[in-house]
Amino acid sequence: MPTIDSILKETRQFPPSEDFRQHATISGMNSYKGLCEQADNQYLPYWEGLARELITWKKPFTRVLDDSNAPFFKWFDDGVLNVSYNCLDRHLAKHADKTAIIFEADDGTVTRASYAELHRRVCQFANGLRSLGIAKGQRVIIYMPMSIEAVIAMQACARIGAIHSVVFGGFSAKSVQERIVDAGAVAVITANEGMRGGKAVPLKAVVDDAYGLGNCSSVKHTIVYQRTPSTPNQWQEDRDIWWHKLVEGQADSCEPEWMGAEDPLFILYTSGSTGKPKGIQHSSAGYLLGAMNSFRWVFDIKPNDVFWCTADVGWITGHSYVCYGPLSMAATQVIFEGVPTYPDAHRFWQMIERHKVSIFYTAPTAIRSLIKLGSDFPRQHDLSSLRLLGTVGEPINPEAWIWYHEVVGKGRCPIVDTWWQTETGSIMIAPLPGVVATKPGSCTLPLPGVMADIVDESGETVEPGKGGMLVIKKPFPSLVRTIWGDPERFKKTYFPEEFKGQYYLAGDSAHRDEHGYFWIMGRIDDVLNVSGHRLGTMEIESALVANSMVAEAAVVGRPHEIKGEAVVAFVVLKGPRPDGEEARKTVEQLKSWVAQEIGKIAQPDDIRFGDNLPKTRSGKIMRRLLRAIARGEEITQDTSTLENPAILQQLQEPAA
Ligand code: PRX
Q: Which terminus of the chain has a smaller tally of CB atoms within 10 A, N or C?
């Protein structure tokens, strides 16, 4: 790792405009440094102050951090609160009529919900959930399209203390089933269908298929939001209930379940390098504090801003910067059901113009795909409402950054490149927009209170310019508490022995430049980042091997212009190595198989067949070789330890 040197040398700097700086919540380097010093010198009082200032407590905490059972840290743990109360009720006195959500459906229909209305609907739905017997600590799967109802479902769970686990609507029945089983869910909230790009996406049918895969007897209720007129094929009277029937006659107020600060708020599954997806478990208070504070500082939120985060609620970004951050700060936000290119590539820019979006937060992969469609689309729209832009999910290449800055932001808007993870719960490293001069491709500096560092294998800080492992050296409130049902894996993965169990290991490599700016270089484990989504190579390999034709499979990534990384699979079949038409057919079969097993996002772009995989004599697959082959690079590595060098040539040939 320490031998990785960055080849990217980016020297351009973009300081915030004087106007932006003057009006920013945190303005100027001195304020930032002051906060950092406070956090450095008085770590616990710093977080204590924020927790008292930002969160409304039912019963205030008296303890800040309990680290007696590290790395199972507890924050504010004798405090009592309710997250949904913090997102809704407490705003009613001043902001009842303020628009909380502007929802734009796939077909362009716009629906608005004020804070009062959202509160009423969350209460009714929460009462509905309670009427089914769903209670504190039970797990509820949410498998929904982007909608106001998805947010209501999450908030209603938070209100009654049920632990939600949102599953991205693009995931397959198999993935849904695995999550139901792992979480031991008692209910699934879904929709009959979703609408994306003019097409109906079945959701209830996928949930039924998930049940059909077995072991889902923990689920007692399916609650189905009717998004489209269509009627589901299957309906089990004693289990399935329409959302609108459930809320019929329910009271529009609902006493929140008062929760301990450390009671879990949600579980969100994410890929790791080995084994099944990890159920990342977040707390109530610490998580909320992270989402709120980062939202107000990084996005510099003001009362009249219109915030739009394009992430789906199925990902952590949709949790922290759709469901919890914006609502807890009484912001107005846009939620979009569809895709950026439907009905055409004007869509995003039209929506910014129509809703006068002032803060726009999206993923580099979306920016790259919009660049490809041409600058004419954004140029035809009035984007003057924008004042701040953001990116998340993967490193942004400087070309895309500059385009975003010039064509979308017209050179006026700071760009906040935000580094964080499902596990960190909230943004960790990002420029405070009224403070930091940005550099294209760098997420710049840690937020005050985030003790990020880059270290070598012995835990020593590496010198500027040298690559190393990104770690966070002190526990922080919004950090993952454990892996659901697997505390040992939590310890091993995130607080490894190499660092004496002291540092949180993010799993990314990074380096710092002479100004202390962080540059993320990629993952250090076998995890791919496809269109900003983390996919474990191991999961895709297991899916492939689960196909009856496949004997063995190895998956690697290769750079992709738009997706960032594309999936390339090397497959050994049980039968003979196919060629011609047969190979083409097998490739198609395996691609649909992966889509069915995991979801379309994991589908390989390229599948190659070999009689074997390149292995060392001890049987280890030589992934570095496979990566070189996938990239079409010449093989310069030593292949003398290879069991069967002849197969390299086979694997270099495209299957069809
Ligand atoms: O590799 C980093 C990359 O995405 C990973 C986290 O993925 P996930 O848990 O799915 O959360 C994505 C949204 C927070 C990280 O380990 N990543 C995320 N943001 C950035 C990034 N890489 C570079 N720059 C970023 N801004």
A: N
- In short, whether 91's Cβ falls inside 6 Å of ligand 1 is no
**d(Cα 84, Cα 295) in Å, to the nearest integer?**
17
Distance between alpha carbon 120 and the CA centroid of its chain, in Å? 28
DSSP character at residue 374: -
Q: How far is the CA of 506 from the centre of ligand 1 (A)?
A: 10
CA neighbours closer than 13 Å in the CB half-sphere of residue 578: 21
Return contacts of 321-326, CB within 8 angstroms, 24+ apart. 321/291, 321/295, 321/361, 322/151, 323/87, 323/151, 323/154, 323/155, 324/83, 324/87, 324/287, 324/288, 324/291, 324/292, 325/291, 325/292, 325/294, 325/295, 325/426, 326/295, 326/301
Phi, psi of 176 (to 5 degrees): -60, -45
pLDDT-based confidence at residue 646 (cuts at 50, 70, 90) = confident
pLDDT band at residue 1, thresholds of 50, 70 and 90? Answer: very low
**Buried b vs exposed e over 441-456: b needs ≥16 C-beta within 10 Å?**
bbbbbbbbbbbbbbbe
The verdict on the CB of residue 543 being under 6 Å from ligand 1 is no
DSSP SS3 for 353:
helix
CA dihedral 538, 487, 221, 171 (to 10 degrees): -20
Q: Answer yes or no: is the C-beta of 520 below 6 A from any ligand 1 atom.
A: yes
Identify the CA nearest to 529 among candidates 502, 563, 501: 563
Ligand 1 centroid vs 641 CA: distance in angstroms? Answer: 35
- The three-state secondary structure class of 143 is strand
Q: Tell me, what's the pLDDT at 640? A: 73
- Single out the residue of 30, 51, 36, 25 nearest to residue 448, CA to CA: 36
* Closest Cα to atom 26 of ligand 1: 419
Burial of 199 (0-12, 13-18, 19+ CB in 10 A): exposed
Q: Is the CB of 270 under 6 A from ligand 1?
A: yes
Residues 581 and 570: their CA atoms lie apart, in Å, by 18
What number does the ligand 1 atom closest to the CA of 417 have? 26
Q: Would you state the pLDDT for residue 621?
A: 84
Residue nearest to atom 21 of ligand 1 (CA): 394
What global pTM score does this model have?
A: 0.93
Question: Taking a C-beta distance cutoff of 8 angstroms, is the pair 367, 334 a contact?
Answer: no
pLDDT tens per residue, range 559-607: 999 999 999 999 999 999 999 999 999 999 999 999 999 999 999 999 9
| CB-CB neighbours of 27 under 10 Å | 18
**Tens-place pLDDT, residues 5-26:** 455 567 899 999 999 999 999 9
Structure tokens at 9: 């040398």
- Tell me how far apart the alpha carbons of residues 321 and 423 are, in angstroms, rounded to a whole number: 15
Q: Who's near 404: CB < 8 A, 6+ residues apart?
A: 367, 389, 391, 396, 415
